[in-house]
Amino acid sequence: MLPPAIRRMRQHFFPALVLSLLIALTLGCGSGSAHTEPAQTAFPAATVPLTKLSSDPYTNSTSQHATEVEPDTFAFGSTIVTAFQVGRIHGGGASDIGFATSTDAGTTWNSGFLPGITTFQDGGTFTAASDASVAYDAAHGMWLIASLGLNPPGPAKVLVTRSPDAINWGNPITVTTTGDADKNWIVCDNNSTSQFYGHCYIEWDDVSSGDLVKMNTSADGGLTWGSALSTADGAHGIGGQPLVQPDGKVIVPIAGGVFGSMLAFSSNDGGANWSSTVTVSSITDHTEAGGLRSGPLPSAEIDANGTVYVVWADCRFRTNCSSNDLVLSTSADGVTWTKPARIPIDPTTSTVDHFIPGVAVDPATSASSAHLTLTYYYYPVSNCGTGCQMGVAFVSSQDGGQTWSAPVELAGPMSTSWLPNTFSGVMVADYISTSYVNGNAFAVFAAAKAPSGSTLDEAMYTTTSPLAAAFDAAHFSSRNERPVPNAKSDHGPAKFYDLDHEHPIPPKKRTLRRSARR
User: Fold this and answer.
1) Who's near 354: CB < 8 A, 6+ residues apart?
2) Model confidence at 222, in pLDDT bands (50, 70, 90)?
3) Residue 333 burial (CB count, 10 A)
4) C-beta neighbour count of 189 within 10 angstroms
5) CA distances from 71 to 27, 88, 100, 424, 435 (A)
6) Closest CA to 311 of 246, 395, 384
7) Is the entire prediction scored with pTM above 0.85?
8) Which whole number is the average pLDDT over 485-508?
């Protein structure tokens, strides 16, 4: 049998011909270090079979066709649902929200487009839709997709679309009545022993009020929603992802303000009140090359015992903040959080840049036996200028994130020039998602191919079989690693509250916010 490091190389560098060229390299896992081998500078072949879930059918002149971006997923029982933007618009949002559903644990899929949101699909009134997020309400037997309806220059509204079977969807229900909504996320309490069983929660931020955090609650399967409430300290943030513990406590990790810190807040009373925020960690992030739209938004999940896992892109372990790793922090109560640990995908001396993570936790597992799968995008070379090549890969953990498998390539290389453009850069996603269904992990992600003339070719894909690392694969730990002293982000203060560059931060206010974070 090959030694562990060589097995890892075989896993990471397909096919066998490439492996034979690399055997001569000195490999190994040093004590307390995840990797000692040379950094990846070229793409391994993607050999995992993929299933194409959807493609952009629209022809409206306001969009860049054919494009699909930014999926979320959620699984319950044997059903897994994903929702995403279709026909990305440069100024924000897309032609509509698409969906794909498997009711047989990822074996077969049905896809379509949500009705009644935009003018391009079944008589909607909005000119664009954005930010899809999926949940299931077990108490009411209802699937829910939250999204944004856009009518610029008017304010964006949070919408909820309902379905009893995740195939046939009704017209959207408007959740918000005030504010200009951004980055909404939905979750439902599916714990039958919780006194708030059947409550659903939506987090969003009001960009017209400097990312003021808001929460809405429904107790009737998403038909009606209560008033939008702020946290006790009037927190500002973006990209929150609410999660529900077994006793009904809601914990919401969120990027603070304009990405200066990772925060969290909670509710113990079914959404009647929301706590002040606590600091999970500062954020030290690297700006991706290639004009890519990317930021350190959280990807958060929860295990069977209620431990919350939060992953984001961070460069604190890299000299001169040269590229991002993905880091993990956990909490049992939403108040006390572990120090961010680097997920050891590549050595800290590598040139690899990791970003846009989508973490999943098997809800039937917990603690030191929790199963995690993390899907992400990456550049083999961080300093790739304007013509960057990007890949999609995953790693997994069988011990609650203490050790991780070697990465497995899912798609790539894809050029950033093949992606739709936005005010904030070329786009595959602000977030992606991975979910466990019947103990198996599936990721949904956008993958691009070379365009045909002015028509792009970016669609939604998943793996034909569940994501799984080789059973004999080596695992790696970053247990003894420490951040680089005085690590700093390699960019200045954010200039906009939102990722579409429509709500600028006044210079004076930005100075005050940065001072407050210090």
Assistant:
1) 313, 323, 324, 325, 326, 345, 346, 376, 377, 378
2) very high
3) 15
4) 27
5) 36, 13, 10, 18, 12
6) 395
7) yes
8) 88
